[in-house]
Amino acid sequence: MDSHLSHLLPYAQRHDFQVGRASELSGKDRLFYRALEILPGLASWTTLIGVLLLSNYAPFVAAYFIIGFAIFWVLKTAFLSFHLRHNWKRLRHHMKVDWELMIERFECGHLYHMVILPFYDESEEIVNATLESIANARYDKKSIIIVLASEDRAGVGAQEICKKMHEKWKDTFGSFLTTLHPADVPGEMSGKGSNASYAAEQARKKVLDMHGIRYNHTIVSIFDIDTVLYADYFNCLVWHFMTTDEPLKSSFQPVPIFNNNIWEASALSRVVAMSSTFWEMIQQERPERLATFSSHAVSFKALYEVGYWQKNMVSEDSRIFWNLLIANNGKYNVVPLSYPVSMDANAAPTLWGTIKNIYRQHRRWTYGVENFAYIIYHFTKNKKISRRKRVVIALQQAEGYWSLVTNPIMLFILGWAPIFLGTQEFHRTVLSYNLPIMVRDLLIIAMFGLVVSSVISLTMLPKRPKEKSRLLYVVLAVQWVLVPVTMIVFSALPGLDAQTRLMFGKYMGFWVTPKTRS
Amino acid sequence: MTPTTHLPPLSEKNRRRFFISLVLIFSIAVPLMVFYAIGYRFDFNGDIQNIKAVGGLYIASGISDGVMYVDEKRVDNMRIFRSAAYIQNLEEGVHEVHIQRDGLYTWVKDLPVFAHLVTEAESFNMPVRPQIRIATEWVDNAGRGVLFESATTTHFAFASSTVSYVLAPGSATTTFTRDIEHTYVASLFASSTQETEMLRQLKLLQEQQSERFNFSSATVTVPTTTATTTKLFRDSLLFERDGEVYVTWIGRNADRPYYYCVRYAGSKMTKELYGEHVYEQLSEQVASSTDLHSAALVGERLCRDMIRIDRLRQDVRWFNFMPNSEHIVMMLLGDGLYAVEVDDRSWQNTQLLYPGSDLQVLIDGERIYIQDGDYYLELVTQIAA
């Protein structure tokens, strides 16, 4: 065994443990991995084309399927709303809890928080706001290690920001480390994963080892640079860390609320941002389906045992969970905090710019489908994970990626296909006339779920700036009628785009979402 | 008070219960809704409560604010698709449909309804009082048409004008200018008259030949159509044969309009559902057998090649499709210009567009022009707002 791999868990020492794409493998493994990369796109396209063909050649069967699917959608909406509503209650409750008081009963003075803040070319103002929110947190700042991770390829501007921030905040926190991730490292993809991994390793050597801080006493919170913390984030995190069964075998997921700039963002941007928040809230009530996303926390020991975040792929935030699950033979989970962190809604100065940015951001997020090949590949290799767990997770993931792309398109567009493509014989039937009426009525019923969303979204708004009219509340309530459009344009289409790229081996690189605040 | 306990996530038990309830609802709802969609209803009103199969009617209408009656009951809960109404839950059999609005002719039709199927029809409601716009020879400085009082005050009393005119005393035209439209329409009618004259001569010749050979045993082949008496609109061909006007479909069979085809329901029922004339036409069309009943299967869809247009037992002087419609034919008969629907199931609705015994008609683009005596006028088929 190589000595430099000895700290890794046994399974993580495999050469293919951090595989990013099929081309990094050889022989049968490469073929198998490539087939798995093709599978999600193939399944989605087969479904969409299949519905069209079915509508043309077997319109009666297609019509029965569409009715069944519309009912399924109504019930799925009810199911998700049920989870969303409970998490909303939980979130509001957790925001009122005095977490400082809650952790008093624990002996947790030995714990350190390492906060890794990777950034690229974001403005000083955004970086400073994040650090300020950490400084304002109700927690002993001397237990907080800040790692501000810049990129060499971002140029001197980013390094200047590092210097300024270091000067400004170094005395506030226990430690303030700035790192500079070198450009063009062979085998790495430029992006958050490679930067964060480099920063974590630098922090290990320069802070943890230097000060003798134990890895299992260090909780790493990795935040997108636009993340603004609520006061009790660290207290809440510690409480969950101390009360969970296996804290070193768990990641901790807050709820990302994209509301930093919500009053400046367009309606389209707000709906998409809130929808993403709601999806994460729903997942918080379904921990068996929860993977880490965006800003999250994990013990340094767990990270070190798998070699940190992957440096050769896009979706490092969710991949780290799968790395940890597989390396720990299935004995790893995500603990939902039901406590928020605020982030920026995707907003550009122009509407068209916003549309393009949202599309690109969601294409990057939905490119998380690259995890599917990784999960299935390693599930066939690591037999120490229980067969039941492997089957359940594989099915959940397959259904998730398939439904993300196909469901909105089938519901809002292909639902009408038998009417346009069906045979003359079909067009003369009562079924042909009733189909659009029933689908429309069922969708209207499903829209009641949006009423729940609308109400919840209003309660999660930050304070209204004085220059913004009260009438904007009405717009904020009504904007949810855009959901059918946003589901297709910013969920299904970028998802299909991402799956198609992966299917044809046109691998994506990391795209940094521009951050705009007025 | 600040809470000091955390709120646990949804319990596994609650989530499973909710999930199972939804699975149960799904299992029950899907078959129920599929049965509903294909046309099964539970009969709560009958003496014996049971499940019955129903059909529907889909009536396209050119008027948006008309009132519809099915079997003399006003229909209020119909589903509207663009400019058409979908009436559901109709039992099998013939249903009488009225569509009416003040000032318009009422469209009435008996339509057959079959279980699980939708019967289509297209209504049309023309103004009872002709709506006209006279193309005057002269216009004033403001561009308004000029009518000379003595000649026109009573001439068009039966019609309504869609525009206002200046009534001028006498017949002096020095202060007016000649209207270019009048000149244009007059030239259209002039060329049309030449064609009509040629046609009249040809017809006369045919009649003479027909009379000449009456005493002979030889069969005379009369030309069925000529280029000038054949009108084509989209894939529908309108032609005259032996004094009758027919419409035939020359497009793809799959696109054939619904009224060409009937659902064979046995000889007696087919007559009841569609009318005897339809049944007879189908019988004539079945070349291999003299008895339609033995040639066709019950439930089979049979399509006719052509449909005869009702000429109200009068001679047809002129005919053409209504502008932008292959479903309505205009016929100039002895006592006026009529609109007749092609759909001949049960009967063809016939509505008088403009009365008169000495009229000339032509269509220019989407406009219908009539020459009534010395006047040229445009006929408008909708009541002006």
Overall pLDDT metric of chain B: 84
Helix content of chain A: 55-70%
Strand share of the residues of chain B? 25-35%
Largest sheet of chain B: 5 strands, mixed
Global mean pLDDT of chain A: 92
Helix content of chain B: 10-25%
What is the total tally of β strands of chain A? 8
Lateral strand order in the biggest sheet of chain A:
3-2-1-4-7-6-8-5
How many H/I helices of chain A?
18
- Structure classification of chain A: alpha/beta
Topology:
The complex is a heterodimer of chains A (518) and B (385).
Chain A: H1 27-57, H2 59-96, H3 99-102, E1 112-118, H4 124-135, E2 144-151, H5 156-169, E3 175-181, H6 192-211, E4 218-222, E5 228-229, H7 233-243, E6 250-257, H8 267-284, E7 296-299, H9 300-306, H10 316-327, E8 333-342, H11 351-366, H12 370-381, H13 387-412, H14 417-421, H15 424-427, H16 430-459, H17 472-478, H18 483-503
Parallel strand pairs in A: 1-2, 1-4, 2-3, 6-8
Antiparallel strand pairs in A: 4-7, 5-8, 6-7
Chain B: H1 12-38, E1 40-42, E2 51-53, E3 55-60, E4 67-70, E5 73-74, E6 79-81, E7 84-90, E8 93-100, E9 107-113, E10 118-122, E11 131-134, E12 138-139, E13 145-148, H2 149-152, E14 160-161, E15 165-168, E16 177-178, H3 180-212, E17 231-233, E18 236-241, E19 244-249, E20 261-263, H4 267-274, H5 276-285, H6 292-295, E21 301-303, E22 306-309, E23 318-321, E24 328-333, E25 336-341, E26 350-355, E27 359-364, E28 367-372, E29 375-380
Parallel strand pairs in B: 3-10, 11-14, 13-15
Antiparallel strand pairs in B: 1-2, 3-7, 4-5, 4-8, 6-7, 8-9, 11-29, 12-13, 12-16, 17-18, 18-19, 19-22, 20-21, 23-24, 24-25, 25-26, 27-28, 28-29
Structure characterization notes:
By secondary structure, chain A is an alpha/beta fold. Helix content of chain A is 56%, strand content 10%. Chain A has helices at residues 27-57, 59-96, 99-102, 124-135, 156-169, 192-211, 233-243, 267-284, 300-306, 316-327, 351-366, 370-381, 387-412, 417-421, 424-427, 430-459, 472-478, 483-503; strands at 112-118, 144-151, 175-181, 218-222, 228-229, 250-257, 296-299, 333-342. The longest helix of chain A is centred in the first third of the chain and has 38 residues, at 59-96. The mean pLDDT of chain A is 92. Chain B has helices at residues 12-38, 149-152, 180-212, 267-274, 276-285, 292-295, and strands spanning 40-42, 51-53, 55-60, 67-70, 73-74, 79-81, 84-90, 93-100, 107-113, 118-122, 131-134, 138-139, 145-148, 160-161, 165-168, 177-178, 231-233, 236-241, 244-249, 261-263, 301-303, 306-309, 318-321, 328-333, 336-341, 350-355, 359-364, 367-372, 375-380. In chain B, strand 4 and strand 5 (73-74) form a beta hairpin. In chain B, helix 4 packs across helix 5 (276-285). Residues 210-227 of chain B have low confidence and may be disordered. Chain A binds chain B through residues 63-64, 67-68, 71-72, 75, 78-79, 82-83, 86-87, 89-90, 93-94, 96-98, 101-102, 239, 284-287, 336, 338, 424, 428-435, 437-438, and chain B through 2-7, 9-10, 15, 18-19, 22, 25-26, 29-30, 33-34, 36-39, 54-56, 58, 79, 86, 88, 116-118, 120, 254, 258.
